[in-house]
């Protein structure tokens, strides 16, 4: 279906503008050349046609079109339910580091000149023929070199988010020594990151942390003073490095959100401050806070009973996060199996229902009011101390004695 949809869009653009009117561009070309999984990658298309020509022509060909970014020359075509971003070739007229005013062009080289990295300035015809206007994008991609198109300072001044994008691409693609000129330019402009919206910063940072192993890139960010301009609380280098060791040892997929927690403060107030600074979603904020709550001390020697109690109190998700972060603090290959058993318990054990109810407490002669809560809390503490016994008669006997003892 994806191939059918792609062919429909490219064939329609060829009907409108003739052969060579449109080419694939950017990530879909790069990742295909590098034989990386591009199945879920957006297929971005560049064209010499104007947005009006694209819109009228595709509609005439029976395709649906949405004007998703007309100010920047982008429309989205929908073919067989799949979206395709189609953008007219552009050149920058004016930039301020956050947004750009562009003019349309028909020159592929002018469009390539405004892109961030040479490996992203690659174009491909529908038949697979690759075009490399910068003259080095293909070689850089194949060699794992992240190189700015033209002058690094100029590219960064067009959009200061490119400082973070540079390190994200290092984390994902770099197989060579980072370009000293690019690192120097990133250091010179790192303080301009504060001009960007927190949402853009957070989105790019999470993409960076989702790389298989971003440790070298993050260390470079720290060394040249980039991290401090994102959030001053980023200081937990050992825990961050250890968490990635844990993930790699277990074969777990990268967890960018937990890596953010590992990199950030270890106390709840710091986690809240980080979430506020980056304007994180409520769900992500709550996860960071829960991961840093520190209610339990997780160790490799932690008993099954203590771990089950933590699961009951924290919930499995927060318990898992805290366990992984504790493991990351002191990762050693020799302890993988022991910690792995702890993690397996968190992943598989499900707490039973507490074997008493509010009606049971009232039936013991406890009047409605605060005393009911005190009795229930005392019973719960006993139940947890006994490691979740399910004997109903024993539970009622204990409840009866507590109801008499607690005033």
Could you give the count of β-strands?
9
The domain count comes to 4
Q: What does the largest sheet look like? A: 7 strands, mixed
Question: Can you give the helix content as a percent range?
Answer: 40-55%
CATH topology of the largest domain: Beta Polymerase, domain 2
The strands making up the biggest β-sheet line up spatially as 3-4-5-2-1-8-9
Average residue-wise pLDDT: 92
Head-to-tail CA distance between termini: 70 Å
- Low-confidence spans: pLDDT under 50, at least 5 residues? none
State the CATH architecture of the largest domain: 2-Layer Sandwich
How would you describe the shape? elongated
Beta-strand residue fraction: 5-15%
Continuous helix count: 20
Q: Write the element-wise H/E pattern from the N-terminal end onward.
A: HEHEHEEEEEHEEHHHHHHHHHHHHHHHH
Top-tier CATH class of the largest domain? Alpha Beta
**How large, in whole angstroms, is the Cα Rg?**
28 Å
> Which structural class do the helices and strands define?
alpha+beta
How would you describe what is shown here?
With 407 residues, this protein is α+β, with helices and mostly antiparallel strands. It has four domains: 1-143, Beta Polymerase, domain 2, CATH 3.30.460.10; 144-230, cca-adding enzyme, domain 2 (Orthogonal Bundle); 235-351, no CATH class; 358-405, no CATH class. Helices cover 52% and strands 10% of the residues. It contains 20 helices and nine strands. The strands form two sheets. The chain has a seven-stranded mixed beta sheet with strand order 3-4-5-2-1-8-9. The protein is elongated.
